[in-house]
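Field reference: "sequence" (input) and "structure" (output). Example, LacI family DNA-binding transcriptional regulator:
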Amino acid sequence: MARNRATLADVARRAGLSKTAASMVLNGREGTRLSTEAHQRVFAAAEELGYRPNVAARSLRTRKTATIAFVSDIVATTRFAGGLIRGALDAARERDHVLLIAETQGDAAFEQYAIEAMLDRQVDGVIYAAMATRRLAVPPAILNGPVVLLNATSPENLPCVLPDDERAGRTVATALLEKGHRDRIALLGRNRLKEREPGVSLAAQARLQGIRDTLSAAGTTLLAEAFCSDWLPEHGYAAMRSLLGRSGRPSAVICMNDRLAFGAYQALGEAGLAVPTDISVVSFDDDPIATWLRPGLATAALPHEQMGRRAVEILLDGRTTEPTLVPMPLRRRRSIAAPAS
């Protein structure tokens, strides 16, 4: 037979106090003149009885449900961007909140259904996330309450959390300059669509800007720039072969993401060239593949867990409307060395 759930009245009776006094203690409300010993009796009684507060009743009183909606396109089922959810889950748990997660797979009708279902549950706010850093259209339904964009921006200038891609561009360029590379640095992964369409990517143009600004400040420019129709290994392979076919072989290559670098490694190996003895390689994202390449790939890591955490903090604290840029740390692995003589 199921055991009856303990009530606040049961806790108060066990502690020898009024129901009002017990409620004030359990809810941490200021102004009680109860002794420390009385507080301890209330907490002990609650633990002994297995008391759990009535969340529904508390929600009616406080207009808070301690729940957050996390709506994404394909973050949840993507291993690479799963850190966004991990960081948000950790931050929500630390703040005694529960995350309700829905992934739309780009289905507009399901997205509307999922959002309405979450709003019907009176969530305290919505985190609207994208796997690829881009500008997006925000569903009007979530604009009536607290909302934070994660890995995205919007025309409404909502609070958003983004990776600091421009600073990462400066970081990877600086890493090569510090090793002595100057006039023979090539770039692999130029893509006009990613660079010109914010709805496709915000990362490409920001990374490129950081690279160029850093090289310019050092009095140099890129030796060559190879275009890729997409940022996938096969395109990195073809672009690297194209670079090697030109006169004046680069001493280092910056790849716009790790998958391109994977393809570049294959092309270099086929050409009988070693990383980093013959050509240094540095990249962006810190995809799991970066640690499996030999030698390990130096890359500016996307800080997805920190981004997810910051999104929850901003949503609950509501202290900023400016974009929050989270640094991308450089994973210094063995793919960078001084130029060959």
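The first strand starts at residue 67 and ends at 72.
The longest helix spans residues 203-217.
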